[in-house]
Design goal:
Blueprint (H helix, E strand, L loop, with lengths): L6 H9 L10 E5 L4 H12 L3 E8 L6 H15 L2 E6 L8 H13 L9 H13 L4 H4 L15 H10 L16 H17 L4 H21 L8 H4 L4 H16 L5 H11 L5 E4 L3 E6 L2 E5 L1
Parallel strand pairs: 1-2, 2-3
Antiparallel strand pairs: 4-5, 5-6
Length: 294
């Protein structure tokens, strides 16, 4: 019978898979109280980082004060500082996306997030169902913002168990109205059954391959002005799309959908003068130059 690893041994094993290298100074870390974010906070502090745990309150449940206190106590135990931020979302559709946008906005573009290899597999499948191109199939970008992306969900749960912490389980994670929950609870288990193996590693390999393609495209277009429609019109469609994706992601702090990108390309092609994008914004053209308007 395999002996259970000690807390120190498990911490060392998981840290070897993380990407905390190169980070210096104070770091923000989104912590919901779930196993993934708790493991992220623990591993970040064990990597020697000065961390602020940030709990984002979406104001959707009456228990958020207790959840914030739970995260605050864990942060104190781990030697991290703590803050909580309230956000308000009034969207009537695509609530998951609007929550995500609001959360990323308050955390900032460099905050560490507790996404794992399982999240990567789910993201790839969701993007595939949306008809995503290679950029969408690249999934979640690895690196300092997603330092535990190589870990599996069972490993973050094991880390919490070793720390004698029972993570908070967000009730919305089992709500079948949300697409990601159904991918997690229904689609991935069905794929595993059909393939007769764990599909998460293979899906992560696909994402890694697509990331190498998007990195090449990014390097090939780094000197191109993303708002000059005259320049964009001279490029192959794949390169123009890549330039626009990168520009819009920087402007909006989140990736754009394929449908949004197609609408923006119509502005570039002078088929329309402006188009609507997410968050009540739009992309408009004046004298051949693009801009994002609120």
């Amino acid at each position: 019978m395999e002996e259970k690893a000690t807390t120190e041994e498990l911490t060392r094993q998981l840290l070897a898979k993380c990407t905390f290298e190169g980070l210096a100074g104070p770091q923000r870390c989104g912590v919901s109280g779930g196993a993934d974010s708790i493991a992220l906070l623990w591993l970040a502090t064990q990597a020697g980082l000065q961390v602020e745990a940030v709990y984002v309150d979406h104001q959707t449940r009456s228990t958020t004060n207790q959840e914030a206190t739970f995260v605050s106590n864990i942060a104190k135990r781990f030697g991290a500082s703590f803050s909580t931020v309230q956000v308000e979302v009034n969207a009537t559709s695509d609530l998951e996306q609007q929550w995500r946008i609001a959360r990323h906005k308050v955390l900032g573009p460099h905050a560490m997030l507790g996404h794992t290899a399982d999240d990567q597999a789910e993201t790839l499948l969701i993007n595939l169902m949306r008809g995503a191109a290679v950029h969408g199939l690249a999934g979640i970008e690895p690196g300092p913002r997603h330092p535990i992306l190589a870990l599996r969900r069972f490993e973050t749960e094991a880390m919490c168990a070793a720390l004698d912490i029972e993570p908070f389980e967000d009730p919305s994670n089992s709500d079948s109205r949300y697409q990601r929950n159904r991918v997690r609870a229904e689609l991935l288990p069905l794929l595993n059954e059909i393939a007769d193996r764990d599909c998460v590693p293979g899906l992560n390999r696909t994402a890694k391959h697509c990331q190498s393609v998007t990195e090449f495209l990014t390097e090939s277009t780094i000197d191109i002005d993303p708002v000059d429609t005259r320049t964009l019109a001279t490029l192959p469609r794949a390169l123009a799309s890549q330039v626009l994706r990168e520009w819009l992601r920087d402007e909006l702090n989140h990736p754009v959908s394929s449908a949004e990108l197609e609408r923006v390309l119509e502005v570039v092609d002078h088929k329309v003068i402006a188009c609507e994008i997410s968050g009540g914004r739009r992309v408009a053209r004046t004298d051949g130059m693009l801009r994002v308007e609120s």
